[in-house]
Amino acid sequence: MRKGVIFGIGCLALGFLMFGSGGCKVNLSNPPFVQLDTLVGYVYDDTTLQQGTTANFYVFASRAGNDDILDTGIIYRSINGGPDSVLQTMWLSTTQFTNIYSYVLGPNGNKERYTFTFGTQNGKYDSISVTIKDSL
Question: How many Cβ atoms are within 10 Å of 115's Cβ, its own excluded?
């Protein structure tokens, strides 16, 4: 009986040793990093533009965790506080993403909110939004 107890304790100790030495992979997942670049000619903050103007966005997104890959991107637009409508859905497989998007602003007096949302394969999401008021 004593040999069985010693064998059991030895197996338990070996299990702890294997677990503590990397036998279990730790997933270092974080929400992605999303920003609108502040280059001249691109919208990156809430602003007012003339109706019919083309709003240009320079979007940058990257993973923030060691094991992550960007796998989704969705661009939404809301007009005058209404529900979000999807302008574009992207399926990605990358660690970084950049692209330029251009949208023509609607009628005078509209408030258009654009939201750029990116997600990772580990289910983490982040987004950035800007609101543009249309004027004459």
Answer: 17
